[in-house]
Design brief:
The protein is of the alpha/beta class. Helix content is 40%, strand content 13%.
Length: 447
């Protein structure tokens, strides 16, 4: 029976158990399809309350690590390795790993926008009112703010031309739930974001990877896969794709739009990184067949859980006929802060700072990594280190003090190769990033 050691964790017991499950999956100690110990038996063995184990198993299921089946037990999900990216990160002690595994915006320790905005809400007597459900006026204001934000992506939307959601992950899940039936094939890039893989697995939608090059997916292979699988839906990240960083150019976008129209494909466009780049979204090229999903989490503030789903009215109607279900998870405080920041220009200023900082970090990476640095890619929050890296590069980086993510976490099919994704934005400072990049160089010596 698998038995975790929780003695060294400072987390609450149930979270320590979730972390132990995630770590065991990451190390291969718990394999896909393996049954976890029964809740009561594990509680008795560890000397903890059965309700604590129950909470842990529920949280592990929410993170797509395991699945509970009534009468059969709790099992490790196939492909749950990528879900372990979402486990809680404990503060690192001095000399421990530099974590470049998670894509988050660069944190500016000197920024006080949130403190000032909260103080302003309190001074105006508006803060207490945000404990209630969002008012109709606040929701309408958020729709206007969302339309304003998406205008910078070339979309001219009426306020009713979008839905509010609690971030891009919820938006992608809602789109797939509306457009697909369980068991229906879905097309994605050959390497795709863990959140997309997790959403498809949760909805029981088998994924088929489309071949890619440095410019993104190949239109010919998209056409071939659509014909071979009968898929009706494709999920793409055309701008600063996660994990490869590829962005579709105008010629490639036009070719993909032509395939989508000819094969009658619905496009779910994950544009969460779009505002950080310069490439136009597919939604501009093929608006009648595209749902664009964006948020503020990767560009303005990760904790500002507000996203937008934009598309043709008939598509939005399929997702949320009453225009309420997707916004139920959005807190009034997030709505109020997002509206204030978009209306006042704070969001734009934070975005500009983020882009400038990423450019500085990209140049730093180019200097340190040398020939390992990918060529011909736009500045992105993450690097895809391919180019014939050695087997076991992710583990070698770990041995040199750096946490990165191996290709298998993003791969849809077998034989993913040995590439790794490095989040340039995750380091606390450029000094820390330089130290981490030097660790990668040491892990990947080149003759």
């Amino acid at each position: 029976m698998w038995l975790p050691d929780l003695s060294s964790s400072s987390l609450p017991t149930y979270l320590a158990l979730v972390e132990a499950i995630a770590a065991a999956i990451g190390r291969g100690e718990l394999k896909p399809g393996e049954r976890l110990p029964p809740q009561r038996r594990l509680a008795w063995t560890l000397g903890i309350n059965p309700s604590t184990v129950m909470l842990a198993y529920r949280e592990a299921a929410r993170r797509h690590l395991v699945s509970g089946e009534v009468g059969r037990g709790t099992y490790v999900l196939a492909g749950s390795r990528e879900a372990s990216l979402f486990r809680l990160k404990q503060p690192a002690a001095q000399g421990e790993l530099i974590d470049l595994s998670t894509n988050v915006p660069v944190h500016d320790p000197d920024n006080r926008d949130l403190s000032v905005s909260l103080a302003g809400l309190a001074a105006r007597g508006e803060l207490d009112g945000l404990q209630a459900y969002p008012s109709a006026a606040l929701v309408e204001r958020a729709h206007l703010a969302g339309a304003t934000w998406l205008r910078r992506r070339g979309l001219e939307l009426a306020p009713n031309g979008l839905l509010l959601c609690a971030g891009a992950q919820q938006g992608v899940s809602a789109a797939l739930l509306a457009l697909c039936e369980a068991g229906e094939p879905i097309l994605v890039e050959r390497f795709t974001a863990p959140g997309i893989k997790a959403a498809a697995r949760q909805l029981r939608l088998p994924l088929h990877g489309v071949a890619m090059d440095e410019r993104g997916i190949l239109p010919d292979d998209l056409d071939r896969q659509a014909r071979a699988t009968g898929a009706r839906v494709v999920v793409l990240t055309p701008c600063l794709q996660n994990p490869t960083g590829a962005s579709l150019d105008a010629e490639r976008r036009a070719a993909i739009a032509e395939v989508a129209r000819r094969r009658e494909l619905w496009i779910v466009e994950d544009d969460v990184y779009g505002v950080l780049g310069s490439a136009a979204p597919l939604a501009v090229q093929v608006p009648e067949r595209c749902l664009l999903i964006s948020s503020l989490s990767k560009s303005v503030a990760p904790g500002l859980r507000l996203g937008f789903i934009a598309g043709a009215p008939e598509l939005l109607e399929r997702i949320d006929p009453e225009a309420q279900a997707t916004r139920w998870a959005v807190t009034p405080l997030s709505l109020a802060l997002a509206c204030e920041w978009i209306e006042s220009g704070i969001a734009e200023r934070r975005l500009a700072w983020q882009i400038e900082e990423l450019q500085q970090r990209w140049r730093l990476a180019a200097r340190v990594l040398g020939p390992r640095m990918p060529q011909g890619r736009a500045v992105a929050p993450h690097l895809w280190l391919d180019g014939a890296p050695p087997a076991g590069l992710a583990e070698a980086c770990r041995q040199h003090g750096v946490e990165v993510v191996p290709a298998e976490v993003f791969a849809v099919e077998a034989n993913p190769g040995h590439a790794v994704r490095v989040s340039l934005a995750a380091a606390a400072s450029r000094v820390e990033l330089k130290r981490a990049l030097e660790g990668i160089v040491a892990a990947w010596p080149m003759g």
